[in-house]
Design goal:
- By secondary structure, the protein is α/β, with parallel strands linked by helices.
- Helices cover 40% and strands 20% of the residues.
- Helix 10 crosses helix 16 (441-452).
């Protein structure tokens, strides 16, 4: 029997999943690690925590499965996008990674627009200068930690740091790298014009690959630590959302998926590079050669529900502990008793600023319409609806530039909630398909590994054979109309509050 390994370096933890050659999960293990927020809007993690989680995860799945490591034919990596990992000439980490949701780089975004021009940045990198992307983080370190920057010999993304630790190779691939804001996205390569304009040396960046390409082999030291066989191939892999796209079968024109994790994404594939000149959604390279994607990012999706759980829903947490279930099951079950579209609270999901479609790090979350009879159940439902409205915002932008998916697959932790799936189907007015695998990005990474080691000839062939739909949430015409009215109200709120967010007179 042949096996594949998918490793997903997430924000809350790293999940390692062992699959058979048909991408059926055999066993999985997740190890968590902390997020450091030393100042408001900052978000950092220790790269060594990711590596320790990988080592422990691989050891755990090998022990639990009892497979012969010689039968593991390939490893696929996925991970949180946009994070900055800086290494010295010896490959040692220089500082904590500034990760995707960090919002400290507002001034650096202004610097980028001044140095290169906003129009040129969009023309080459397919996106406006963004606080969350890697380029602005590099400029922040260069400005605020110049002595440390002078020691930098290598710049990697989170999953690519794990590649380095496994193989010794400094490499990346197109889907993740196109979220750094240093690529010519149309040409799928580093942009000399962007790098020179920002004063970032090309030698610092890894070699570029397509997502299914073999990028290296597990070396002896990593094999000794993890229990893997030396020489096991490691493919390019993908950023978490491009990997989730592979894992949900979104590999061709007109298909889309929605993922709800810490953040939430609408991701649609196109045969051409479709640009939004206002930069309200992101255009990136897809993990399929010759294809691109339009992708949104709602910064605080599951994070909003987590905030509500931690700060408001103590009774639900206590009940869940007593029953031995997930608190979110209790919360969403209670929210389901509130009539959907009940015209009570509206929630703006901007706990961490917002990327899509507003690109405003100063935006903040809000409950609108609180009254004396507002309940925790109302607040929970408002959070679920508010995230769905934010996703609808981005879907409308994609439609405006000619990317118009007819239905969506759904994945991520939020996909486990029947209520959330139902709300999304009605807010978006499209069918929402649930897929068999719950392994998300790790599943997509394993599929890429299957292509890289020759089990399948192409990503399209692999996805067609391996991805299976298990159920569909159909929109309800009456609820679609109710939510359309609510969505129109939701759309008015950010413009009304924008001046307050930015410290100006509204």
């Amino acid at each position: 029997m042949e096996y594949l390994l998918g490793i997903d370096i997430g924000t809350s933890g790293t999940k390692t999943v062992l699959f058979d050659r048909d991408a059926n999960p055999i066993t999985a293990k997740t190890f968590e690690y902390p997020l450091y927020q030393e100042q408001n809007g900052w978000a950092e993690q220790e790269p060594e925590d990711w590596w320790n989680a990988v080592v422990q995860g691989v050891q755990a799945v090998l022990q639990a499965s009892g497979v012969d490591v010689a039968d593991i034919k390939g490893i696929g990596l996925s991970g949180q996008m946009h994070g900055l990992v800086m290494l010295d000439e010896n490959g040692e980490v220089l500082r904590r990674s500034i990760i995707w949701c960090d919002q400290r780089t507002g001034e650096e975004v202004e610097d980028m627009n001044r140095m290169l021009g906003a129009e040129k940045i969009i023309q080459i990198t397919a996106n406006p200068a963004v606080t969350g992307f890697t380029a602005a983080k590099i400029l922040w370190v260069k400005k605020h930690e110049p002595e440390l920057y002078a020691k930098c010999a290598h710049i990697l993304l989170p999953k690519d740091y794990i590649r380095y630790k496994l193989t010794g190779e400094y490499a990346t691939e197109v889907s993740d790298a196109s979220g750094m804001q240093l690529m010519d996205v149309a040409k799928r390569t580093w942009s000399d014009e962007i790098l020179e304009g920002l004063g970032i040396e090309k030698r610092l960046l890894g070699k570029m690959y397509e997502s299914q390409d073999v990028t290296g082999e597990v070396h002896q030291e990593a094999a000794a630590l993890t229990g893997l066989a030396a020489g096991t191939i490691v493919v390019g892999g993908a950023g978490d959302n491009p990997a989730a796209a592979i894992g949900t079968g979104i590999v061709s024109q007109g298909k889309a998926f929605t993922t709800i994790g810490t953040s939430a994404v609408v991701y649609a594939v196109s045969d051409r590079m479709a640009l939004d000149p206002k930069g309200r959604v992101h255009t990136l390279c897809a993990s399929v050669p010759g294809k691109w994607t339009v992708m949104s990012c709602t910064q605080a999706a599951g994070l909003s529900l987590q905030w509500l759980r931690n700060h408001v829903c103590a009774p639900e947490m206590a009940e869940a502990a007593e029953k031995g279930v997930d608190p979110y099951e209790i919360m969403t079950a209670e929210a389901a008793r509130v009539p959907i579209g009940s015209e009570k609270l509206i929630y703006l999901p901007y706990l961490m600023g917002e990327r899509s479609p507003h690109n405003d790090p100063s935006a903040r979350a809000a409950f609108i319409g609180m009254s004396m009879d507002s309940t925790r159940e109302d607040m929970t439902q408002a959070v679920l609806e508010g995230v769905a409205f934010g996703l609808r915002d981005s879907l409308e932008v994609a439609r405006s530039i000619g990317v118009n998916p007819e239905r969506t697959k759904i994945c991520g932790g939020g996909a486990k909630s029947p209520l959330w799936r139902k709300i999304i189907a009605n807010v978006m007015n499209m069918k929402v398909d649930l897929i068999e695998s719950e392994e998300g990005p790790g599943y997509g990474a394993a599929i890429l590994a299957a292509v890289g080691c020759g089990v399948f000839d192409s990503v399209e062939e692999a996805a067609k054979k391996l991805v299976k739909v298990t159920g569909t949430e159909e929109p309800d015409s009456e609820l679609v109309q109710k939510y359309e009215e609510r969505y129109q109200e939701f759309k008015k709120l950010y413009p009304a509050l924008k001046g307050i967010y930015q410290g100006k007179q509204a």
